[in-house]
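Let's practice the habit of predicting before peeking. Look at the sequence and jot down your guess about where helices and strands might fall. Then scroll down.
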Amino acid sequence: MQSNARDGFSVEGAQATLVNSTITQNVRVGVFVGPGASGRVGIDNRNEAAGNTISLNGSSGVSVFGGSALIAANTVTLNGTDPLQGGRSGISVVNAVADVSGSNTITNNAAQGIFVSRSNVSIGSTAFSFSGVNTISGNGAATAAGGVSAFLGGTLFIRDAVISGNHGGGLILGGRSQAQVIASQIQNNLAAGPSAGEGIRLFFGS
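Done guessing? Here is the structure:
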């Protein structure tokens, strides 16, 4: 799924499983799970890992908007190539539910590694046979800071994550967002613009 004029893969009001694929250089989003949709991205219907490579898309690598997604074993890298596009995160979850179960490598995306708004997101799970570790590194910029960022009532559960070397901070919670963090490494995150590069930063009632 390469070089399409909009999204590489899109599902709305339906169920879909996307495995063992390369989704790259699409104008907008690599993988879009829209309103009323349920998507499995990198995990098959037997709950086995079958990851995708999602890279070099103009906006976010994976966008879950108004739907639900189970995301595992993917390489999500170098997305957000078009500065005129919104989003530009590795994984964006807005008004939705997502389980970023494990074995994902989310690196070097133009905006946040994982961005959450008005959504419930679990990062890391022990429920599957594959590793529950997610590596989130090298993401973010001065205007879209952080390895993992939640805003406007986002709720996160983070287990066994490695969040390192991101620009503007490791974990950022704002606007009445909350997170529970267990057995994770948040280290070596960098300053970017007004963000000082904290491991964890809370603001605006979080």
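How did you do? The chain has no helices and 22 strands.
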